[in-house]
Every structure is written in C-alpha cells, then in structure tokens.
Amino acid sequence: MNKILIANRGEIALRIMRSAKEMGIKTVAVFSEADRNALHVRYADEAVCIGPAPSNQSYLVGSKIIDACKQTGAQAIHPGYGFLSENPAFAQEVKEAGLVLIGPTPEAMEVMGNKLSAKAAALRYNIPMVPGTEEAITNVDEAKARAVEVGFPILIKAAAGGGGKGMRIVEKAADFEEQMQLAVSEATSAFGDGSVFIERYVTSPRHIEIQVLGDTHGNIVHLFERECSVQRRHQKVVEEAPSSVLTPEIREKMGKCAVDVARSVSYVGAGTVEFILDENLNFFFLEMNTRLQVEHPVTEMITGLDLVKEQIKIARGEALSFKQDDLKISGHAMELRVYAEDPLNNFLPDIGTLQTYQTPKGYGVRVDDGFEQGMEIPIYYDPMIAKLITYGKDRTEAIERMVRAIEEYDITGIQTTLNFGKFVMQHPAFVSGRFDTHFVGKYFRPESLKSENEQEAMIAAIAAVLLMQDQKSKSQPIASEAKQQSNWVQNRKKYT
Ligand code: MV4
C-alpha cells in the first residue's frame, strides 16, 4: 500500500494525510467544487474533483470515489467519519473493485448499523443492556404490556436511528400509543425504516464510549474510555479521556465488554463501543460506531498511539504490535469542538469568512483544523471548523490549559463555540466531574456568555476612550504606532 485516497474533507482529511505522509504513503484528495482551495486539497500529493458542492453529488457518491482511485492508482480508501464511512454498500463496492477500505468489513458495518441487530450480536456475549424489547415492536398492545413490565419512563428508539432521531420518551402507559406512532413516522421519514423498539429510560446517564482496535489476525484490544456527556441536541461539544468517574475495576469491566462486542462481529479496524452509565455506575451497551470518531485525539493523547497509523497497519494485514497489558493511561486530555455556530442564538450555524484566524500554541496544545485566515466556511457541510485538544498531567491541568488555549484562539468574522467551551471548563459541575448528558440543558443560558461579552465590550470601550485621550494629548502618532495601539486594545480585550 503506497498510495491512499482520503474520501473526506476538512480537518479529518488533513489529519489522515499527516499520518500517511509520516508512513511514506502518497495521498490523494477528493474535493467538491466548493472545496477547490481547501487545505486538504493543497496538502495531498494529488487531488481529484468529484463534483458539485452538495455532498450527495460529491463526497457521498461512492462510484466517483472508486473512479478517482482507478484514475490515480490509489490502492486503499480512508473514509474518515461521516459521509460514506459507515455505509456497508460502499464498503462492499470498494471490495469488489479490488480496493482496500481502511475500516471494518461490510458485514460488521451492516450488523452494527442497526441497533437491534447490534444488540442481538452483543447478547451472545452477555453484555449488560438496558431492559426492553429485543425485537422491533409490531404490536402496540404487546409493546405496551412490555413497557409496563419494564417500568416507566421508557424510551422508544428507532432501530436504524442516529442523532436522537425517532427517539421518544414515554412517561406513562396512556401516552404510549401516540408516542410510538410519532417515533415510527419520524424513523420512516429519516431512515426509510420505521422499526422501533423500547428500553427503560435511564434518566441521568453519562455517555461513555470505549475505543477498540481489531486486526485481521483475531486480536482485539481496547484503548480505554472517552467521556462525551457534554452535548446538545445529540451533538457532542466537549470530550475527555479518561472519564473522571470510572474506577479501575469498572474501566476494566467496560473494556472487556467493549472487546466482546467487537468480537461478536469479528471486528477489524478502529471502532467505538458506546455505553451509558447510570448514577450507580451501572453501564449498559447502546451501540457501536464502526468508524474513526471525531474525538479520537483524546485517546491518542492518553495512550501515545496514532490511531490513523494503526488503522493503516491493520488494513495492510499487519498484526497489532502491542497487547492489552502493554497499554496504559498517561495524563488527561480534553477536546473542544470549535463549531461555526452562535451559542447566543441557539447554536445556529454562523457561516461566513474567517476574518481573523489565529490558533493557540504551546506545550500540551493540539489543534486539528482545516481552515486558515481569509477562508470562507462553506454552507454545504458540517459547521465544525476545528478541534482544540489539550493534554495535561491530570484533569486540572488539562482544563487550565484548555482555558488558556481558548483565550489565545483568535477567530473573528464568525461566531464560534469557543466562549461556550470556556463556560464549560469553568463551570463548577464540570470541574467537579459531577455532570451528565443534561449538563448543557441544566446549566447553560445564553446570559452565561452575554455577561462576559458585555464586560469585554465595556473594557474595550474604556480602553478606546483612554487611547483617544492619550492620542489627543500627544502629537499625532505615525500610522504603524496607531496600528500597534489598536492591536493592544484588541489584545487587552481578549486577555482580560
Ligand atoms: C438512552 C438514554 C437513556 N436511556 N437510552 C441518545 C442517542 C443514542 N446514541 C442513545 N441515546 C440515549 N439513549 C436509554 N435506555 C439516553 C440517551 C441520550 C443520550 C445518550 C448519550 C449522549 C447524549 C444523550 C442525550 C440524550 C439522550
């Protein structure tokens, strides 16, 4: 394998190419017409345009990507996350074209792509699961009877689901039928598959996931957990590793379960096994993601492994070069997803041009991004512009470093989730480690940021007045001096 095609864009395309380059592997970028000048296109050794901006005419068209491989002689495809990364039909086409997909088999993707078949596979390994139905609900009365047995509140979930679509909480038996109909119609329109099932609703869960790696020789290991409870509308914003609540015993148990879930589909490649953890630290398997995840860097930081390199070595047929007992956690890592979104306006996408774009630097700071100053954020794709990752000897240092890095990060022209991230890092519930998936809903109000913005605006206004008075009292400063002073006002605003 000496040339791979990266079937993705943005930060993750660059992230993958960097590892390939270190391994002496040539890279091929694919790009849509909206991404002609994108960094991933410039970074790659070769680049192929695969169509118009909308992803269903470019990044989601498997045949164009396979054609680009043939055209350039790339032998393997790294799909990144999103787009075609968990599409079993694409995985099958890649295989039939005589190419290698850097990822699991189409069969493993197929089983894990449906929550019910995923649970059925995991059941053979006695993995703890939330009580509910093991099959899709076909009869409302039977389902209602089962819900009464399981106990309310219950959650109706879409088997094909993702992103919380087709999910409905039911508080009491009388509401069951109506909520079920809503879930079925939502699932049908979102996934073309109306199958739903029920589970007892775990009211205050933490979302903890385990990274796994499997090779083609039957070795499977886990790389510990990531805590992903800080999310809104099923979109993660802050992730960390390790979790502040797991004991070594629970960690080991969850790790073993994750490896068994992977084993249930003979998993090959990097994957993530998702659990929820209740108040009493009971954990339950939810589903498995068969891709490299956005938040994989926090695992890299605490294990010292490069997950993309591991994926490539696995795809080349190499055996894992370490055993479970060789792995240990060192230090603590935090990740903030920097979205082009306005936290003061319900986190609505705020696309535009990056007027200023200066990333933080220094010890323990990693920025995985795909943009530079002056670039425009296209409206067609995910609004995540960067991931800010900090590493420290412990959780406190990782948090302090994150606050410092957020303050150094300078983005103007668009609103971002940076100031929201600072709010999270400084919130007592987050700092103490006592939080769950309701963190944002429970604690975040737009006012929590406004007061800080207003304070900053006030300081800037005062500084401007002082500066004007200062300038009036002196002879007119030369242009560069004036510029320096205005920079000082901006920096003063940023660092206060
Ligand atoms: C749950 C749950 C509570 N009880 N299942 C949301 C998305 C999907 N991956 C599973 N999800 C949940 N399943 C039971 N039985 C709560 C959630 C949930 C959630 C889980 C992880 C992270 C964030 C979440 C936000 C809301 C609900």
Number of domains: 3
In this entry the ligands are: ligand MV4
Residue share in helix: 25-40%
Instruction: State the end-to-end CA separation.
Output: 51 Å
Choose one word for the global shape: globular
The number of strands is 20
In short:
It contains 17 helices and 20 strands.
SSE inventory with pairings:
Elements lengths: L2 E4 L3 H13 L3 E6 L7 H5 L2 E4 L12 H11 L3 E3 L9 H9 L3 E2 L4 H7 L2 H9 L16 H11 L3 E5 L9 E3 L5 H16 L4 E5 L5 E9 L5 E13 L2 E7 L6 H16 L5 E9 L5 E7 L6 H8 L3 H9 L16 E8 L1 E2 L5 E2 L6 E3 L6 E5 L14 E9 L2 H14 L1 E3 L5 H9 L1 H5 L6 H5 L2 H28 L5 H17 L1
Parallel strand pairs: 1-2, 1-4, 2-3, 4-5
Antiparallel strand pairs: 6-7, 6-8, 9-10, 9-12, 10-11, 11-14, 12-13, 14-19, 15-16, 17-20, 18-19
Helix pairs in contact: 4-5, 12-13, 16-17
This protein binds ligand MV4.
The site of ligand MV4 has 15 residues, from strand 8 and strand 13.
Give a written overview of the molecule.
- With 496 residues, this protein is of the alpha+beta class.
- The protein has three domains: 3-102, 3-Layer(aba) Sandwich (Rossmann fold), CATH 3.40.50.20; 131-200, 2-Layer Sandwich (Dna Ligase, domain 1); 206-450, D-amino Acid Aminotransferase, Chain A, domain 1, CATH 3.30.470.
- 39% of the residues lie in helices and 22% in strands.
- The protein has helices at residues 10-22, 39-43, 62-72, 88-96, 106-112, 115-123, 140-150, 176-191, 248-263, 296-303, 307-315, 395-408, 418-426, 428-432, 439-443, 446-473, 479-495; strands at residues 3-6, 26-31, 46-49, 76-78, 100-101, 154-158, 168-170, 196-200, 206-214, 220-232, 235-241, 269-277, 283-289, 332-339, 341-342, 348-349, 356-358, 365-369, 384-392, 410-412.
- The strands form five sheets. Strands 13-12-9-10-11-14-19-18 form an eight-stranded antiparallel β-sheet, sandwiched between helices.
- A hairpin with a 2-residue loop joins strand 10 (220-232) and strand 11.
- The longest helix is centred in the C-terminal third of the chain and has 28 residues, at 446-473.
- It starts with a strand and ends with a helix.
- 45% of the residues are buried.
- The model is unreliable at 476-496 (pLDDT under 50).
- Ligand MV4 binds at residues 130, 155, 164, 199-202, 205, 207, 231, 234, 276, 286-287, 437.
- Ligand MV4 is lined by residues 130, 155, 164, 199-202, 205, 207, 231, 234, 276, 286-287, 437.
